[in-house]
Amino acid sequence: MGMVTMTELHKYGRTKFIMPGTAACPGCPLQVGMRQLAIALEGKFTMVIPAGCSSIIPGTAPYTAYTVPVLHVPFASSPAVASGLVRAIRQRGNEGPVVVWAGDGATADIGFATLSGAAYRNEDILYIMADNEAYMNTGIQASGTTPWMAWTTTSPKGKAEDKKDVALIMLMHKVPYVATASIAFPMDFIDKVRRAMQIRGFKFIHLHAPCPPGWKMDDAYTIRAARLAVETGAWILWEYNQGKLTISPPSMPYRDKSRRRPLEEYLKIQGRFAHLKPEDIKLMEEKIDRQWDLILKLVEIYK
Amino acid sequence: MVGQVSLAKQVRKVLVGDHAVAEAVKLAKVNVISAYPITPQTLIVERISEMIERGELKADYVRVESEFAALATVYGAAAGGARAFTATSSHGLFYMYEMLWWAAASRVPLVMAVVTRVIGPPWNIHDEHTDLLAIRDSGWIIGMAQNVQEAFDMTLTAFKISEDERVLLPVAVGLDGFILSHTAEPLDIPAQEDVDAWLPPRNPKIPYTIEPGGEAITMGNLPRNDVYHAILKKYMDESMEAAKKVIADVYNEYGKLTGRNYGPLTECYRCSDAKYIAISMGAWSGDILNAVERLRNEGYPIGLLRIRYIRPFPEEDITGWINGAKGVIIFDRDYSAGMGGVLASEISGFIPSNTSFEGVLAGIGGFDVSADEFTAIMREFVDRVEREGLVRIRKYWYIPKIER
What we know:
The two termini of chain A are 25 Å apart. The longest helix of chain A is centred in the last third of the chain and has 24 residues, at 278-301. Chain A contains 11 helices and 8 strands. Chain A has helices at 6-11, 29-40, 53-56, 78-91, 104-110, 112-120, 166-171, 186-196, 222-231, 263-268, 278-301, and strands at residues 46-50, 70-73, 98-103, 126-131, 177-182, 203-208, 238-241, 244-247. Chain B has 2 domains: 10-258, Rossmann fold; 266-397, Rossmann fold (3-Layer(aba) Sandwich), CATH 3.40.50. The mean pLDDT of chain B is 96. The chains are: A alpha/beta, B alpha/beta. The interface between A and B is large, with 46 and 46 residues.
């Protein structure tokens, strides 16, 4: 599998990697992201899914909308379950991809110990953290990756803490592959999955996935919000591949601050930031600048 | 002897209980082992690690960061078609609690050794059965060994029981911390080729395999109707009932292979003419049996019913033996807060109201109870019933005097 092309995307245009009639909310980013994952892996993989929206989306047993073998598992357990699963199937000569598809709560918070364990052991799994920036399945409670000042039902005045940078924490586990991605940039995400799958060992992709009900925005704005996050520089797409860290093509222009779109464009479509004052937005911009400084320094370090 | 299992060649070794369990894991050719160290379980996983390093056992050993991850890992391995094993104790077992239920209701075969130990606070590494008994509602088959030989036999047979299509439930093998885990005893170990003939590699297709390129099976998504969930629990219950027969069948075959015969769910010593029945589980049953022998010499008509498997609950065995008894005395090395001894609580419902009964809480926290003390406790119970008539005591705290 090489780099994905438009022709290939068109080829998959009508392929139902997820069967219709799911229980997902209108505008759900998770189906979009999972479909991109399925395109990347040509529909041949296994998923381990912890508690979260993606446990509900496939609908009710004895039916499922997912077209690959899936093991639904307790909230904190998925990296460990996938570790055992991959050891078992590799022993029998099955070299297929084992993917953990998990939300931000399962990854950054409750399952963080099992994630760290699986990463440090360099288990041969691909871990996708589909980050909708809160516990959406339980009704929009703040998670470790909810951004600073975002409204949630457990941070009614805006969250006081910063977003936990899970991808960088994973980088420090010295795993062979870590990247950030966005559902608004499918070719970038698909290429990342494919490059990751060339590697035997632990691969981690932090996939940004805007959630309309959770972010208090129109159902039609899922992709727009994801794209604006990148274009305002608020979400930086980068890739670390076996020693080398690079800014990914969709984020390249925004190394130059003057080329970023105004942050307000990203914030104003989201009701969760409606309470922000101008000075809050200014502070948020400073946080974004500092993140760019950090990532660009890492690009220099991991040349 | 066509079609019959023939007696295996056996080697006599002297091993501590933990190492005996490791030997059984090796002979079962387990594919994936994952565990986290906790006293007094650690000798099992240290020995298994050595076996793998030396090439005696071809398996993946996954060094995880917690017991929760250990059970999640072997669960994943079992769902991927492997024969898998873990071991733990006390706080580690409790840290696994959520996964215990998930693994059991997923109906994948698994074996776990539980080296029993007190639950803190205060910190205490000594022997109690409270940890093992706290998982009794989770869907695991639960056995408890009396000696090192039985710890070995129970572990080896556990794979056969768990993988049986009529069962497909995980099996926990209990052995008393230190009293068995760290105590060396002689035991007979069958030869690998004989075990191989009796216990072939696990069939990964039973009950199902989750793997890339495999059938698009989903395990665990929401039921369409809650009644569906109830039906699954009823199936589990039927499998627990079926397990009674399977355990009997497996030990029957195993008896032919090794010459060692077991109960299988319970064993009753000196019971056929007993008017009083003592009931216990685990290693101290040996001391209680000594006490029973002494009381027999004194003329007391008492026997000992030893529980080997508490899940499935050996209801038929228990009611069969206590039916017509004058008195039943139950020894618990465990405590259910607000209730009493777990065995006493569970068994008391089967004791007729005109039968005397005493639940004794002893050895809580791990203190030793000697055969002399058991003798005195049982003698006192029998004497009291003979003197006063019907006696019903659900909990009697046996607390010896200590130096302060």
